[in-house]
Specification:
Low-confidence stretches: none
Number of helices: 12
Strand order of the largest sheet: 1-2-4-3
Helix content: 55-70%
Mean pLDDT: 91
Length: about 280
Protein backbone atom coordinates (compact mmCIF):
# COMPACT_ATOMS: atom_id res chain seq x y z
CA UNK A 1 0.00 0.00 0.00
CA UNK A 2 1.47 3.36 -1.05
CA UNK A 3 2.48 5.84 1.63
CA UNK A 4 0.20 8.57 0.31
CA UNK A 5 -2.81 6.22 0.49
CA UNK A 6 -1.89 5.23 4.05
CA UNK A 7 -1.56 8.87 5.09
CA UNK A 8 -4.95 9.79 3.58
CA UNK A 9 -6.74 6.80 5.09
CA UNK A 10 -5.12 7.52 8.44
CA UNK A 11 -6.46 11.07 8.34
CA UNK A 12 -9.93 9.84 7.39
CA UNK A 13 -10.12 7.42 10.31
CA UNK A 14 -8.66 9.95 12.74
CA UNK A 15 -11.19 12.62 11.69
CA UNK A 16 -14.12 10.38 12.68
CA UNK A 17 -12.72 9.16 16.00
CA UNK A 18 -14.57 10.29 19.14
CA UNK A 19 -13.39 10.26 22.72
CA UNK A 20 -15.16 10.30 26.08
CA UNK A 21 -13.20 10.23 29.33
CA UNK A 22 -10.10 9.16 27.43
CA UNK A 23 -11.83 6.25 25.67
CA UNK A 24 -12.04 6.30 21.87
CA UNK A 25 -14.90 5.05 19.72
CA UNK A 26 -16.37 5.36 16.23
CA UNK A 27 -20.00 5.53 15.12
CA UNK A 28 -21.04 2.64 12.90
CA UNK A 29 -22.65 4.87 10.28
CA UNK A 30 -19.41 6.82 9.98
CA UNK A 31 -17.36 3.63 9.82
CA UNK A 32 -19.55 2.33 7.01
CA UNK A 33 -18.33 5.07 4.68
CA UNK A 34 -14.75 4.83 5.92
CA UNK A 35 -14.69 1.14 4.99
CA UNK A 36 -16.05 1.75 1.50
CA UNK A 37 -19.62 0.55 2.04
CA UNK A 38 -22.52 2.53 0.59
CA UNK A 39 -25.55 0.57 1.84
CA UNK A 40 -26.36 0.16 5.52
CA UNK A 41 -28.04 -3.20 4.85
CA UNK A 42 -24.76 -4.66 3.54
CA UNK A 43 -22.70 -3.13 6.32
CA UNK A 44 -25.14 -4.35 8.99
CA UNK A 45 -24.42 -7.93 7.89
CA UNK A 46 -20.71 -7.35 8.53
CA UNK A 47 -21.52 -5.91 11.97
CA UNK A 48 -23.60 -8.99 12.79
CA UNK A 49 -20.67 -11.26 11.91
CA UNK A 50 -18.37 -9.11 14.06
CA UNK A 51 -20.77 -9.43 17.00
CA UNK A 52 -20.69 -13.21 16.68
CA UNK A 53 -16.87 -13.09 16.65
CA UNK A 54 -16.95 -10.90 19.75
CA UNK A 55 -19.21 -13.30 21.62
CA UNK A 56 -17.23 -16.34 20.47
CA UNK A 57 -14.08 -14.71 21.84
CA UNK A 58 -15.72 -14.44 25.25
CA UNK A 59 -16.37 -10.70 25.25
CA UNK A 60 -19.63 -8.89 25.86
CA UNK A 61 -21.35 -7.55 22.75
CA UNK A 62 -22.97 -4.77 24.78
CA UNK A 63 -19.54 -3.61 25.95
CA UNK A 64 -18.22 -3.16 22.45
CA UNK A 65 -21.33 -2.60 20.28
CA UNK A 66 -23.71 -0.48 22.43
CA UNK A 67 -26.75 0.88 20.60
CA UNK A 68 -27.05 4.68 20.71
CA UNK A 69 -29.27 7.37 19.25
CA UNK A 70 -27.78 10.54 17.87
CA UNK A 71 -29.11 13.66 16.20
CA UNK A 72 -28.34 14.18 12.51
CA UNK A 73 -28.77 17.31 10.42
CA UNK A 74 -31.46 17.00 7.73
CA UNK A 75 -31.40 20.54 6.31
CA UNK A 76 -32.93 23.94 7.06
CA UNK A 77 -31.50 23.81 10.58
CA UNK A 78 -33.60 20.77 11.47
CA UNK A 79 -32.32 17.61 13.11
CA UNK A 80 -33.79 14.19 13.75
CA UNK A 81 -32.71 11.22 15.88
CA UNK A 82 -31.20 8.18 14.19
CA UNK A 83 -30.20 4.76 15.52
CA UNK A 84 -26.49 4.06 15.51
CA UNK A 85 -23.86 1.95 17.26
CA UNK A 86 -20.90 3.26 19.24
CA UNK A 87 -18.01 0.96 18.37
CA UNK A 88 -14.93 0.42 20.49
CA UNK A 89 -11.56 -0.09 18.79
CA UNK A 90 -11.99 -3.83 19.31
CA UNK A 91 -15.43 -3.77 17.68
CA UNK A 92 -14.01 -1.84 14.71
CA UNK A 93 -11.19 -4.38 14.45
CA UNK A 94 -13.67 -7.28 14.35
CA UNK A 95 -15.74 -5.50 11.70
CA UNK A 96 -12.63 -4.99 9.58
CA UNK A 97 -11.72 -8.67 10.00
CA UNK A 98 -15.15 -9.64 8.72
CA UNK A 99 -15.25 -7.10 5.89
CA UNK A 100 -14.49 -7.48 2.20
CA UNK A 101 -10.69 -8.00 2.04
CA UNK A 102 -10.63 -6.71 -1.55
CA UNK A 103 -11.35 -3.19 -0.32
CA UNK A 104 -8.19 -1.18 0.34
CA UNK A 105 -10.02 0.52 3.21
CA UNK A 106 -10.60 -2.85 4.87
CA UNK A 107 -6.95 -3.84 4.52
CA UNK A 108 -5.92 -0.57 6.15
CA UNK A 109 -8.53 -0.79 8.90
CA UNK A 110 -7.47 -4.31 9.91
CA UNK A 111 -4.11 -2.87 10.92
CA UNK A 112 -5.29 0.57 12.06
CA UNK A 113 -7.59 -0.89 14.70
CA UNK A 114 -5.21 -3.72 15.64
CA UNK A 115 -2.35 -1.52 16.78
CA UNK A 116 -2.58 0.32 20.08
CA UNK A 117 -0.93 3.45 18.72
CA UNK A 118 -2.38 5.63 15.99
CA UNK A 119 0.99 6.96 14.76
CA UNK A 120 1.00 6.66 10.97
CA UNK A 121 4.60 5.43 10.70
CA UNK A 122 3.92 2.51 13.05
CA UNK A 123 0.74 1.66 11.17
CA UNK A 124 2.72 1.70 7.93
CA UNK A 125 5.29 -0.68 9.47
CA UNK A 126 2.53 -3.01 10.65
CA UNK A 127 0.93 -3.00 7.20
CA UNK A 128 4.27 -4.04 5.71
CA UNK A 129 4.52 -6.86 8.25
CA UNK A 130 1.00 -8.02 7.45
CA UNK A 131 1.82 -7.94 3.74
CA UNK A 132 4.75 -10.27 4.38
CA UNK A 133 2.61 -12.66 6.43
CA UNK A 134 -0.02 -12.73 3.68
CA UNK A 135 2.62 -13.30 1.00
CA UNK A 136 4.08 -16.21 2.96
CA UNK A 137 0.65 -17.80 3.38
CA UNK A 138 0.02 -17.38 -0.34
CA UNK A 139 3.36 -19.01 -1.23
CA UNK A 140 2.52 -21.96 1.02
CA UNK A 141 -0.72 -22.49 -0.91
CA UNK A 142 0.99 -22.18 -4.31
CA UNK A 143 3.71 -24.64 -3.34
CA UNK A 144 1.18 -27.05 -1.87
CA UNK A 145 -0.66 -26.97 -5.18
CA UNK A 146 2.60 -27.47 -7.09
CA UNK A 147 3.58 -30.39 -4.85
CA UNK A 148 0.21 -32.04 -5.50
CA UNK A 149 0.49 -31.57 -9.24
CA UNK A 150 4.01 -33.00 -9.33
CA UNK A 151 3.02 -36.07 -7.31
CA UNK A 152 -0.05 -36.56 -9.50
CA UNK A 153 2.04 -36.38 -12.67
CA UNK A 154 5.23 -38.29 -11.73
CA UNK A 155 4.18 -40.22 -8.61
CA UNK A 156 7.31 -39.37 -6.64
CA UNK A 157 7.12 -37.89 -3.13
CA UNK A 158 10.54 -36.27 -3.41
CA UNK A 159 9.94 -34.82 -6.89
CA UNK A 160 8.68 -31.50 -5.54
CA UNK A 161 11.80 -30.95 -3.44
CA UNK A 162 14.08 -31.59 -6.44
CA UNK A 163 12.12 -29.32 -8.75
CA UNK A 164 11.75 -26.54 -6.20
CA UNK A 165 15.47 -26.64 -5.47
CA UNK A 166 16.31 -26.14 -9.14
CA UNK A 167 13.80 -23.32 -9.31
CA UNK A 168 15.47 -21.68 -6.31
CA UNK A 169 18.88 -21.93 -7.99
CA UNK A 170 17.45 -20.15 -11.02
CA UNK A 171 15.91 -17.39 -8.90
CA UNK A 172 18.99 -16.91 -6.70
CA UNK A 173 21.59 -16.64 -9.46
CA UNK A 174 22.88 -20.20 -9.23
CA UNK A 175 22.85 -20.48 -5.45
CA UNK A 176 21.04 -23.57 -4.19
CA UNK A 177 18.37 -23.59 -1.50
CA UNK A 178 20.94 -24.95 0.98
CA UNK A 179 23.48 -22.28 0.06
CA UNK A 180 20.89 -19.56 0.57
CA UNK A 181 19.91 -21.05 3.93
CA UNK A 182 23.54 -20.93 4.94
CA UNK A 183 23.94 -17.34 3.79
CA UNK A 184 20.84 -16.23 5.72
CA UNK A 185 21.57 -18.43 8.77
CA UNK A 186 18.34 -20.38 8.34
CA UNK A 187 18.10 -23.47 10.60
CA UNK A 188 18.12 -26.76 8.68
CA UNK A 189 14.68 -27.62 10.05
CA UNK A 190 13.08 -24.42 8.72
CA UNK A 191 11.93 -23.35 5.27
CA UNK A 192 14.06 -20.78 3.45
CA UNK A 193 10.93 -18.73 2.68
CA UNK A 194 10.35 -18.13 6.40
CA UNK A 195 13.37 -15.81 6.41
CA UNK A 196 13.01 -14.13 3.02
CA UNK A 197 11.90 -10.52 2.53
CA UNK A 198 8.45 -9.90 1.08
CA UNK A 199 9.61 -9.17 -2.47
CA UNK A 200 11.45 -12.51 -2.70
CA UNK A 201 8.53 -14.43 -1.24
CA UNK A 202 6.28 -12.87 -3.86
CA UNK A 203 8.79 -13.68 -6.59
CA UNK A 204 8.82 -17.36 -5.58
CA UNK A 205 5.04 -17.38 -5.43
CA UNK A 206 4.66 -15.81 -8.87
CA UNK A 207 7.01 -18.35 -10.45
CA UNK A 208 5.17 -21.21 -8.73
CA UNK A 209 1.79 -19.88 -9.88
CA UNK A 210 2.97 -19.75 -13.50
CA UNK A 211 4.32 -23.28 -13.22
CA UNK A 212 1.03 -24.54 -11.81
CA UNK A 213 -0.90 -22.87 -14.61
CA UNK A 214 1.32 -24.21 -17.38
CA UNK A 215 1.45 -27.76 -15.97
CA UNK A 216 -2.32 -27.87 -16.36
CA UNK A 217 -2.54 -25.94 -19.62
CA UNK A 218 0.20 -27.91 -21.38
CA UNK A 219 -0.55 -31.20 -19.60
CA UNK A 220 3.05 -31.62 -18.47
CA UNK A 221 3.62 -35.14 -17.14
CA UNK A 222 7.35 -35.73 -16.84
CA UNK A 223 9.83 -34.49 -14.26
CA UNK A 224 12.15 -33.12 -16.93
CA UNK A 225 9.53 -30.96 -18.62
CA UNK A 226 8.09 -29.73 -15.31
CA UNK A 227 11.59 -28.90 -14.06
CA UNK A 228 12.39 -26.98 -17.24
CA UNK A 229 9.12 -25.08 -16.90
CA UNK A 230 9.74 -24.14 -13.26
CA UNK A 231 13.36 -23.13 -13.92
CA UNK A 232 12.31 -20.95 -16.86
CA UNK A 233 9.65 -19.21 -14.79
CA UNK A 234 12.10 -18.49 -11.99
CA UNK A 235 14.66 -17.17 -14.48
CA UNK A 236 12.02 -14.91 -16.01
CA UNK A 237 11.00 -13.57 -12.60
CA UNK A 238 14.65 -13.08 -11.69
CA UNK A 239 15.17 -11.02 -14.86
CA UNK A 240 12.31 -8.72 -13.90
CA UNK A 241 14.01 -8.12 -10.55
CA UNK A 242 17.58 -7.77 -11.80
CA UNK A 243 16.48 -5.39 -14.56
CA UNK A 244 15.43 -3.12 -11.70
CA UNK A 245 18.63 -3.59 -9.76
CA UNK A 246 17.33 -6.24 -7.35
CA UNK A 247 19.39 -9.39 -6.86
CA UNK A 248 17.41 -11.81 -4.64
CA UNK A 249 20.54 -13.60 -3.40
CA UNK A 250 21.99 -10.34 -2.07
CA UNK A 251 18.98 -9.16 -0.06
CA UNK A 252 19.34 -9.36 3.73
CA UNK A 253 17.26 -11.86 5.72
CA UNK A 254 13.94 -10.80 7.20
CA UNK A 255 12.58 -11.56 10.67
CA UNK A 256 11.68 -15.18 11.34
CA UNK A 257 8.10 -15.40 10.07
CA UNK A 258 7.04 -17.50 13.08
CA UNK A 259 8.26 -14.85 15.51
CA UNK A 260 6.42 -12.22 13.49
CA UNK A 261 3.22 -14.28 13.57
CA UNK A 262 3.44 -14.70 17.34
CA UNK A 263 4.03 -10.99 17.91
CA UNK A 264 1.13 -9.96 15.69
CA UNK A 265 -1.25 -12.42 17.36
CA UNK A 266 -0.15 -11.28 20.81
CA UNK A 267 -0.78 -7.64 19.92
CA UNK A 268 -4.22 -8.45 18.54
CA UNK A 269 -5.19 -10.32 21.71
CA UNK A 270 -4.56 -7.14 23.70
CA UNK A 271 -7.08 -5.07 21.74
CA UNK A 272 -10.19 -6.16 23.65
CA UNK A 273 -8.43 -5.81 27.00
CA UNK A 274 -7.60 -2.17 26.31
CA UNK A 275 -11.00 -1.05 25.08
CA UNK A 276 -14.14 -0.39 27.12
CA UNK A 277 -17.74 0.46 26.39
CA UNK A 278 -18.25 4.08 25.30
CA UNK A 279 -20.95 5.92 27.19
CA UNK A 280 -24.11 7.01 25.41
Amino acid sequence: MKSEIIIQLHKNFEDYAHEIDGEEFWFARDLMGLLGYTKWENFAKVIDKAKISCQTSGHSISDHFPDVRKMVYIGSGAERPIDDIALTRYACYLIAQNGDPRKVEIAFAQTYFAVQTRRVELIEKRLAEQERLTARQKLSLSEKELSGLIFERIGDNSGFARIRSKGDAALFGGKSTQQMKGRLNVPDSRALADFLPTITIKAKDFAAEITNFNIRRDNLRHEGTITNEHVKNNLDVRKVLTDRGIKPEELPPAEDIKKLERRVKSEEKQIAKKTVKPRD
